[in-house]
Structure formats: structure tokens, C-alpha cells
What we know:
This protein is an all-alpha fold. Helices cover 51% and strands 0% of the residues. Helix 2 packs across helix 4, helix 3 (109-116) packs across helix 5 (133-142) and helix 4 (121-130) crosses helix 6 (145-159).
Amino acid sequence: MAKEKGKGKGKVFIIAGIAVVVLAAAVVGLALAGILKIPGVTPKKGGPAGLYGEAAGQYAETKDTPLEQEPVAEKPPEPAPKRPPTQDQTDDPKQGAKRIAQLWNNLDGQKLAELAKAYKDPELAGVILQMDPEKASELLSTLDSARAAKLSKEIQKQASQVEPKTGA
């Protein structure tokens, strides 16, 4: 019977030892993650990232830093450098004029007249050629007669141009 009392005490010591090791490992892990502050163990600011990916010490309060700070403006991403067009990638003014004409077909005449002020006559004529005829005439009627006449001549000039035939 004396042997059975000794076996129970050994198990208690082993379980207690394991519990101490697990607890110590948890404390050190929390300190390394920056959650617990233990001098010499907790990393300084700018060290490895915290538990949830934030910078270590990002949410730490210090005596010389007020709680309400101005947010630091992030630098906007730099635009991708423009690459020179490849053989497959060239500007097509007619395609652009078609897209603008599709949009302009849904606007009223006064709004179109305001937009037309920003365009040079050859550019505007190319867009008007692609618009619905009713909408194009509405636009021309809202412009002053001198500009409408110049645009009409430019439209006639562009409409009379024949595309060169390609093929063998």
C-alpha cells in the first residue's frame, strides 16, 4: 500500500511541471508578440509585426504622444510607367469617337453644346459623324451659326474621305 501513495505524488509533480512550462511559454509568446510588456523581451517599435499583422507598438500609448493624433497621410501609389504601344496596341481615333458619340447620344442639346466648347472642330466633327443624326442636328442647332457652318464643312470633308482598301 505504501507504493501506491508514492505513485500519485509523482504524477502530480509531472502535471504541475508541464503546467509551469506551458504557462511560461505562453507568457514569453505574448511578450514577443507585443501583447505583454516585459522589459528585455517585448520588441521595440519597428520590430517584427504584431499578432494581427500590425506594426509592433502601433497601438501602444506613450506619455509624450497624445492619444488623438493626426493620421499620417499615406503616399499615393506611383502610376505605372507608360509603355510604348506595340503593333497590336495603337490609338484609333474613330473608335474613340464612336465611344464618345454613344455617350453623347443620351445627353440633352444644351449639355452637348457645353461639352463641344472644349473640342477643336476636326475632333468634334469626328464625334458628330458617329452620333445619331437627330442628336447631331440637335447639337448643331444649339451652337452659334458660324461654328455650326465650320463644323458642317468639316463633317462633309471627313465623311467624303474613303478608307484605303487593304488586302492582296
